[in-house]
Amino acid sequence: MQGLRFSKYKGKSQSTFDRLLEVFKELLLHSSGDVDEAIDWLRALDQEYELSTKDYTIDDFIEDLKKKGFLREEIDDGGGSGLAMTAKTERAIRHRALEQVFGKLKKSQTGNHQTKHAGPGDENSSDHRPYQFGDSLEQIDMPQSLKNAYANNGIDDLRMSQDDLVVNEQFYKAQLSTVLMIDISHSMILYGEDRITPAKRVALALAEFIKTRYPKDTLDIIVFGNDAWQIELEEVPYLKVGPYHTNTVAGLDLAMDLLRKKKNSNKQIFMITDGKPSCLHEPDGSYYKNSFGLDDYIVGKCYNRAAACRRAGIPITTFMIAQDPYLQQFVEHFTQANKGKAFYTGLNGLGDFIFQDYENNRKRRIN
Predict the structure, then answer these.
(1) Higher-confidence position of 101 and 108
(2) What's the pLDDT score for residue 262?
(3) Mean pLDDT throughout 210-239?
(4) If we measure between CA atoms, which residue out of 332, 249, 256 comes closest to residue 298?
(5) Whole-angstrom distance, CA of residue 237 vs CA of residue 240
(6) pLDDT at residue 222, as a whole number
(7) 139 close to 170: Cβ distance less than 8 angstroms
């Protein structure tokens, strides 16, 4: 599995359960939430790298996972039983993805991104300014105003005038709505490269990042293959690549539909893909597909959607997980049509690129 490195453990800072849990969460992401497969991989790794101990075996670990609420018994359609992830495990995977991708960031106060425009906003800052006619009484910082009155008049003649009053400055806390598009076409696992797992990890990390750092922002996640559909955050760990072509137009249409429903004016689309657009859903219900080269008909539709997003004020940032020159040329033309941005990235740097662009887009869109 790409991205994993193992060696015999020599440290003592974590319990055996905690160490195994970190590995197990990663395996669950690679197995798309298949607990039995993840356990099989864990046993194989344990045989080679001695992850467990004589006093704490993999079987002990599995029992603790059930006791601690990470796994539950599930009855399948055939009447058999098996193990499945719980909501607690899904949250733990999101948190691990956040630490992997954004671990170098320090937490900040909720909704801390300010616009340049001061005035009646929705949250206080630590800055003060003199009272002005029209300021509400709720904005007055009474302790600081009393200090000013004492400094100006002394304790023997403590009177408060308008000149002593200061108010908490307020700022608008702008909201940004993001749609993240994830390509689940078959090419995401071609040539022995696992490209879907890094895409899932970034989606989970971005969602957790927005929820904890910018809780007023929104993130919708959609996947696209032959068609496009919206998924819930809880479904991301279970995503699998299908026998699909790449219907980029369907993904963009759905993304625009979702963003039209958002009342705020700051909107953007992130698109993670590694393949060329190769499919369209025609008005008569049929599919037009072409897997050979770049089809002018399909590509033209993509350019049209990119321009439509530009006219609607929706920038598209494309993260191309491929190095093919002819695909890069398509992305360049697509980006020009949208006036957006594009990154050509390998699998390891995807998270950092997404983070940088989210922060930069946020600053650019709301300032």
Answers:
(1) 101
(2) 93
(3) 93
(4) 249
(5) 9
(6) 98
(7) yes
What is the pLDDT at residue 367? 60
Instruction: Quote the pTM value.
Output: 0.75
Give bridge partners of residue 270 from the DSSP assignment.
180, 317
CA distance 198 to 3: 9
Sign of CA dihedral 112, 233, 351, 7: positive
- In terms of residues, how long is the chain? 367
The arithmetic mean of pLDDT across residues 135-143, rounded, is: 75
The tokens 């750092």 sit on which residue?
213
CATH superfamily of domain region 176-366: von Willebrand factor, type A domain (3.40.50.410)
Q: Is residue 359 very low, low, confident or very high in pLDDT (cuts 50, 70, 90)?
A: confident
Give domain limits for the chain.
16-85, 119-173, 176-366
Sign of CA dihedral 71, 76, 79, 82: negative
3-state secondary structure of 219: strand
Position of tokens 């068609």? 227
Structure tokens at 323: 């190095």
CB 173 within 8 A of CB 113: yes
Classified as helix, coil or strand, 71 is strand
How far apart are alpha carbons 49 and 59 in whole angstroms? 16
